[in-house]
Structures are given as C-alpha cells and as structure tokens.
Amino acid sequence: MNQRIGYAGVSTDDQHLDLQRDALKKSGCSIIYEEKASGKSANRVELGNCLKALRAGDTLVVWRLDRLGRSLQDLVKIVTDLERAGVGFESLIEKIETTSATGKLTFHVFAALSEFERNLIRERTQAGLAAARARGRSGGRKPKLDAKQIREIKTLLKDPSIAVSTVAKRYGISRTTLYKYVGAA
Questions:
Q1: CA 29, CA 21: separation in Å to the nearest integer?
Q2: Residue 106 φ then ψ, to 5°
Q3: pLDDT in tens, 126-172
Q4: How far, in Å, CA of 108 to CA of 116, rounded?
Q5: Is 4-112 a CATH 3.90.1720.10 domain?
Q6: Reported pTM
Q7: CA-to-CA distance for 173 and 88, rounded, in angstroms?
C-alpha cells in the first residue's frame, strides 16, 4: 500500500512543529515523524526511523527542503537514495516532487548545481595550495621546535635527574610533543 509519510523537523526548542505538522496532514500524510534536533547534527534519530519505514511506492513529504538535508549535498544524497529505493519525494513549499518527469528534472538541476559547487571548491583549494607551494610554503602546522631546541632537549634528557615533564614545560610543549621530536630515548 503506497503511503505518504511526512517528516517534520525543527532545530531549536523555541521553534514549533505545528505549522509543518498541519501542512503535512493537509497534504495527505498518514504518518508523520517529528524531530527537534540541530540541522547540523548527524544524529537525527527520527529521520533515520522515517527513512527505514519507507517502502517502494511510498512518498516522503517535507514542508521545506531545508527540513530534510543539512546541506544541498546531503539533501541530494538522501533524495537519490530514495529514488534508488523506488520512493518518491515531495517538498510542499518549493513544490518539488520526484514522482513526475518535471519534478525529477527540477531536482536534478539542484543536484548538478551541488556537484558544480563541490568542484569549484575543490579547484579553488588546489589552486590555493599550488600558489602557496610556489611561494615556498607547505601545508600543515609550523613545527613547535627547531633543530637547535631538539639538540638541547636531547642533551638535557641524557641527565637522569631531569624529568621529562620539566623539560617539556621549559619549552612550552606537552610530553607527547617532546616524545614526537626526540623519541622515547
């Protein structure tokens, strides 16, 4: 039996689900999963339960696109997974539904824009790294200790009366960092 299953979510305690709940009921949803969780949170339990409940032929309905995905990339992944499982998707406010050819086209335009954005970010990152290398800079954090300090520390640690923690404190580093540079010797 094909069902319309709704998902409603808000990100803070002072927001209410009433508007979304009413719109989902009006659109014919027989079951509505509700959640109060940060949109950035990867742990959205009710969304997971909702996605598990969907069967081929069902339609997942949300009030707005931003209620489902934390980002456009996340949204595209969720809807693509739904499509592979034979589940339709509908967003009431944006009037997007993937059960028709026009709805699928609209959604795939969003997906293409998302991929384009990811590629632009990757290209900019690569160009920035190449420009930094051309100026003699390499990535990563600057070393905490220089070669002279490492020699001094090795000399100090040869004296068994000097504690490792004392040497680390003197150079403003942790014991772990000290061992990283001079080994356990």
A1: 9
A2: -60, -45
A3: 888 888 888 888 777 788 888 899 999 999 999 989 999 999 999 99
A4: 12
A5: no
A6: 0.61
A7: 56
The single residue listed with the structure tokens 């595209």 is: 76
Active site residue 27: no
Tokens in use for 78?
């969720």
Q: Which residues of 118-131 are buried (b: 16+ CB within 10 A; e: fewer)?
A: eeeeeeeeeeeeee
Would you say 105 and 96 are in contact if contact means Cβ atoms under 8 Å apart? no
- Report the run of H or E that residue 59 belongs to, with start and end: strand 59-62
Residue with tokens 């209410």: 16
Count of all residues that appear for the chain in the document: 185
How far apart (Å, rounded) are the C-alpha atoms in residues 140 and 122?
A: 18
Output the six-digit token pair for 37: 């969780």
Candidate list 11, 30, 41, 165, residue with the active-site label? 11
Structural domain boundaries in the chain: 4-112, 147-182
Beta 88-91 vs 96-97: how paired, if at all? Answer: antiparallel
